């Protein structure tokens, strides 16, 4: 989880979803990965400025492994990027700065929400009903060349603002530089804001972000926990940092894999003498998160509830329950609200990349491996019948080498050879675009998935193992041999395809009317050069 939530990996995961679902994933600011995309960043900004001289965009630079605001700074020109030793730019993400945040008391603020990922298989997500609102300590002004360095105005990080002389530690939950999120919502409601809509949008953002992360997490998961065998119960509390724009649209800033759970702060009681003082706001929010996470994960609690239907189990967990200790204390109602699988129907159509991940895991073969070798990739192509006279196995090898080498150059710290999931997804997108030329990308990908799953189903009839999941939530078997897939997958109306899932790749009626060209490395590289850069389109 820590690896996946580094800023570059999070950006790549969300980008993949933006390619398929640009409107659903427009809550993440347009981003570039440095140093590999510096030239692209510089060119796009120059073109934007040339086309509109009034444009004066601001960008925020975030180190890939940074935390607590360390190393973050603002720029207005690509030439202002700072460098480290030698001529190498530090690995980081550069994002468009949100110019028009919602202000309270003329101050910019963000929201820290705690999210429990209770289970990966099946996916279970809980959101804390209460969160923190963390305020800047200098009145906000839109960024200009004069105030770019004013971190107390532009950056909401607690660890930065607590160093300001204007930081206010308060015993109240609704005042000071750190407040409860509910107190902010109360103020908004008093001004006529539909806070139910605000909460709904935030919940949607959280679910969509985790859906974007799940495919890569499953690859890590299967490497450590054998499929079909009981393993340790894995869960994690995440810290989502969200900014509300002036129009009340939530924007994802980042996700923390190891959010602070401290409920006290340092206070100078005399010159040079500090002591730890309880923080009522932190205690109000964080104690409930920890308490209810333990209640949800407690094996004894789960065992005592198994005799009840699922809908009653949640109701019972949400009611005050008497502790089992000597004190027999009554515990408060649950502060964690289940949002998935509760809202599965609304978001299941977004889990397309998980279906691609199921194919990737199927052909990995070796236990614990997280990279697909050339033989596994050829087996995938052959078993799904994706090669034909216009797309030979030699061309398949060139495609594999080109993509794998390029991703290896982007991941210099990787010690494992082969094709990782992100590279496989890119190859799958390319195959889908080549195969179904006349369709939008989303329908191209879904159509190719249907072809692959149908081929594997036909080959695997009668084989009791290796089933592909119907909704990508069932455990994935890692076997080179073809298995049986569940039938009856229903297609989301957004993904309706004109193709029949059982048709082979070589069927001419499924190809573009244009004469098919032989795929070569030049063909693929041209595809990469012409491929548009997708962005979040965060609106002001």
UniProtKB/TrEMBL annotation:
List, alphabetically, the PROSITE patterns matched: TTL (PS51221)
Residue spans of biased composition, Polar residues class: 472-501
Q: Does the keyword S-adenosyl-L-methionine apply?
A: no
Residue spans crossing the bilayer:
none
Give the matching InterPro entries. TTL/TTLL_fam (IPR004344)
Region called Disordered, residue ranges:
305-324, 459-540
Q: Its domain of life?
A: Eukaryota
Question: What keywords is this UniProt entry annotated with?
Answer: ATP-binding, Ligase, Nucleotide-binding
Pfam families on file: TTL (PF03133)
Name of the protein in question: Tubulin polyglutamylase TTLL11 isoform X2
Q: Which gene encodes it?
A: LOC106562979
């Amino acid at each position: 989880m820590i690896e996946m939530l580094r800023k570059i990996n999070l950006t790549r995961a969300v980008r993949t979803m933006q390619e398929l679902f640009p409107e659903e994933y427009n809550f993440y600011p347009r981003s570039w990965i440095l140093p590999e995309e510096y030239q692209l960043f510089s060119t796009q900004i120059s073109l934007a400025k040339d086309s509109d001289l009034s444009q004066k965009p601001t960008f925020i630079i975030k180190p890939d492994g940074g935390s607590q605001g360390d190393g973050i700074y603002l720029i207005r020109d690509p030439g202002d990027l700072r460098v480290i030793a030698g001529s190498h730019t530090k690995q980081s993400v550069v994002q468009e700065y949100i110019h028009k945040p919602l202000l309270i008391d003329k101050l910019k603020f963000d929201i820290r929400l705690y999210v429990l990922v209770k289970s990966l298989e099946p996916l279970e997500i809980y959101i804390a009903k209460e969160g923190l609102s963390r305020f800047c300590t200098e009145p906000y002004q839109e960024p200009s060349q004069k105030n770019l360095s004013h971190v107390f105005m532009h950056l909401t990080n607690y660890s930065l603002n607590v160093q300001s002389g204007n930081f206010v530690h308060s015993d109240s939950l609704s005042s000071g530089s750190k407040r409860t999120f509910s107190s902010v919502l109360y103020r908004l409601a008093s001004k006529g804001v539909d806070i139910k809509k605000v909460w709904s949008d935030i919940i949607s953002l959280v679910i969509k972000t985790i859906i974007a992360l799940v495919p890569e997490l499953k690859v890590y998961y299967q490497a450590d926990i054998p499929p079909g065998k009981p393993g340790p119960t894995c869960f994690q509390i995440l810290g989502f940092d969200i900014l509300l724009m002036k129009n009340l649209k939530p924007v994802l800033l980042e996700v923390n894999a190891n959010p602070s759970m401290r409920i006290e702060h340092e206070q100078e009681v005399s010159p040079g003498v500090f002591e730890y003082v309880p923080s009522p706001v932190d205690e109000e929010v964080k104690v409930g998160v920890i308490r209810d996470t333990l209640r949800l994960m407690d094996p004894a609690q789960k065992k005592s509830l198994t005799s009840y239907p699922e809908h009653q189990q949640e109701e019972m967990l949400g009611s005050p329950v008497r502790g089992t200790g000597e004190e027999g204390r009554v515990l408060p109602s649950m502060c964690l609200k289940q949002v998935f699988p509760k809202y599965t129907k609304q978001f299941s159509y977004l889990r397309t990349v998980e279906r691609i991940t199921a194919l990737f895991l199927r052909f990995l073969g070796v236990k614990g491996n997280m990279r697909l070798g050339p033989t596994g990739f050829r087996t995938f192509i052959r078993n799904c019948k994706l090669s034909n006279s216009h797309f030979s196995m030699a061309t398949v090898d060139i495609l594999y080498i080109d993509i794998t080498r390029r991703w290896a150059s982007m991941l210099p710290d990787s010690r494992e050879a082969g094709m990782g999931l992100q590279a496989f997804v890119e190859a799958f997108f390319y195959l889908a675009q080549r195969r179904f030329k006349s369709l939008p990308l989303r329908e191209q990908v879904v159509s190719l998935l249907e072809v692959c799953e149908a081929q594997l189903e036909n080959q695997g009839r009668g084989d009791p193992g290796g089933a592909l999941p119907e909704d990508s939530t069932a455990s994935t078997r890692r076997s080179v041999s073809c298995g049986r897939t569940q039938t009856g997958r229903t297609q989301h109306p957004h993904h309706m395809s004109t193709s029949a899932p059982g048709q082979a790749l070589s069927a001419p009626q499924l190809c573009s009317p244009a004469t098919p060209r032989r795929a070569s490395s030049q063909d693929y590289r041209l595809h990469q050069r012409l491929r548009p850069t997708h962005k979040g389109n965060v609106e002001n």
